[in-house]
Amino acid sequence: MDDVRAAVDVGHVTLLVAVDLSKAFDMVDFDVLIDRLGALGWSGMACEWTRSYLSGRTQRVVGDDGTVSASLGRTSGVPQGSVLGPLLYALYANGAPRSLVHCRHHVYADDTTIYLHGPFTRAQELVRMVSEDLGRFAAWARTSHLAINSGKTRAIWLGSRYFTNKLANADISPPQD
């Protein structure tokens, strides 16, 4: 995020929102994933192999006291701890950045950060624009059967100490998801 430092160097502030998606790897919808893989140019055979790989999986939960639940079939989610799980999730979430109009983004696995730079004097406009993009991102998440965890999603102003102090004193709040 070298561009954040560059923004500070020219006297701008950055509004950054770290978006947390609830149980993102567990919520991947098999049918949506297969459709998206096909749209990315995967062959029918590769899509069916992927469906076969994901289907028929079960899960058990071990309690604090060591008791093990009955096995339950999985109808969504990519296997965590596997080589393919993060790759399949990344392909599933491939369209998320296209939902953004104003903001830049960084994506790592299921962590998405969106941000926007601008002059301190346009802080309210930055808040409005980031809020609009958060709304678009939330709509993408809903169509992807994912949910934003508002309790873990955080917004922060980045900039020089002078400008971040002015923002705190001006009561310009980062958007709430």
TrEMBL record:
Which residue range or ranges hold the Reverse transcriptase domain?
A: 1-162
Choose any GO biological process term that the UniProt entry carries and state it.
DNA biosynthetic process
Database matches in Pfam families:
RVT_1
InterPro entries registered for this protein in UniProt: DNA/RNA_pol_sf, RT_dom
Coiled-coil residues: none
Q: Which domain of life is it from?
A: Eukaryota
Under the heading PANTHER family, the entry gives: REVERSE TRANSCRIPTASE DOMAIN-CONTAINING PROTEIN
- What name does the UniProt record give this protein? Reverse transcriptase domain-containing protein
What organism does the UniProt record list as the source? Trichogramma brassicae
